[in-house]
Model the fold of this input.
Amino acid sequence: MRAKDLSYSVVIGLLAGLGFLILIGPVVIVLLTSFTQGRSIRFPPSGLSLQWYQLLFDSVRSSQIHRAALNSLEVAVVAMVGATVLATLASVALARRSGTWVRALDTFFMSPLILPMLAFGLAALMYFTFMGFRPSLALIAIGHVVVVAPLALRTTSASMSQLDPALLESSASLGASWLYTFRRVTLPVIAPGIAAGAFLAFVGSLDNVPISLFLAGPRSDMLPIRMWGMMESTLDVRVAAVSGVLIATVLVLMLVMERVVGLTRRLRD
Amino acid sequence: MSGEQGHTLDIDSVTHRYGPVTAVADVSLAVRAGEIVALLGPSGCGKTTLLRVVAGFVRQSAGSVRIDGKAIDHLPANLRNVGIVFQSYALFPHMTVAHNVAYGLQARGVPRGDVRRAVERFLEVVRLTDFRDRLPRQLSGGQQQRVAVARALAVAPTVMLLDEPFSALDKGLRLDMQIEIKRLQRQFGLTAILVTHDQDEAMSVADRIAVMNHGRVEQFDTPIAVYDRPATLFVSGFIGTTNLLRGRALESANGTTLVELEAGAKLTVPTDRAFAAGAAVMLSARPEQLRLHAEAAAGRWRVHRRLAVPLGPNTMHDLETRDGVTLKLVEPRLGPSVEPTGDAWCGLRPDARPGLFDIATST
Done:
């Protein structure tokens, strides 16, 4: 019995360790590499320095990267807001209803998660071109809204389904209209779910490559694509430094979200 | 500013179907002003559906609900002015106690000063003034329930609906809250409906009890009448403990019926109506309506005493008849007069008025 328990713990421990290694390993390697003293992306780094970060934050020599980063941020904010509003409306409409139509709509809204993004990127490019639009940041943002909205919808509808219907009924019997109830009860109660969804949508847009790849034009360079370009042509170590900044940013955001809304709990539901 | 005098509530031939299932079947109840009526029944008997019809959460398939004689069927829940306290209390988790109580008045656009005064008043009524800035999760179950009651009272509802409000409380607190609710209901002259599956709760809180089964009201009467004179076999089994003895009616005359029990006795019981000679009947006798004897006599049947358990001042006997029916009998413990086990004879107490019901002959 004890030996069995022990071997069970050993197996689980090893698996957990392996998972940890696969998940954390690359992050650590990229971070360490970004602090290299050398002139190429290589692990282990040859000595430690901040030179690549200094270069990255140099507004003259890294202006293209800054441009791309600002574009990506702008698109991520717009996509986050758009996706969050759509997801909230959809989850309020679909919550606690059953029926063929409701299920069909739910599946429809979630479908961008399964749809191959490259195919959607190409389709979006053809569609927008056909309608006479030129590639632009706005088009990229629209494309991102489509693919990140399901992420926001998942956490928002999870919160909606946990919202006690008795709260809404109490509110109604106390004389509140639907709108008043929505503003003072529904929205505040599901706010953590909405916030978690917004965070997912933001991050999902920030490092989206397939949609940006198709919809980006010469004036709308996006950060992930610029990074890829830098890797391809020059093995520029600044790519590692950008990764470092991204990882740190997301980590900080995640800690803040965990504090404020209990992010991991929202994602598990 | 609050409903100091009660309002009448009339439920008139209300039927509700969920698809093919009839949850409420042609129920009519006239609730008097200031009266508290319990809807009592097993789960699935339709009591909750009926409550939701009155609250306006469910639109009934047929029939009408009237408050003070005026039909409210066309009104949505937020225009009915019907208060409700849920089993889960359904307090708004992100609002303080004071904000919860203020909610209904704010939703109605009552001026701020009046809201503040009402909140103070009702927090005092439920003795939670010191807790005004707490969040619901920082309160005990009983306190949460008092907030829910204050919140519902604050809007001066015409009728108060209580949906299993005590079942989430532990036993000691439950009795306190039952008394508290009853006190508030009296104080405000509220007309109230209490939905419950707990007969003790219905007995102690309600002025009248509507016993429901399969969507119908089987009996609507005072707690004592429902207990002492159950109208149907279901009521006699659902309210209190009872012993069921199968038999045949031999003849009815002058308000009594002679019954031959399968347990092996002929006895005369007082009845309100006549039974056809030879009709299959069920005799329903409460444990305290039976008596143990050491000797055989007319109207007594032989029982085997399996167990005797002291219950405070009483002894509860667990008996088995010759035909295998288990009986419970309670009698005062007056010394060791009868042997604790072995055979004995069981009969009705002379003043007992057991229920006698027709049963389908096929069963």
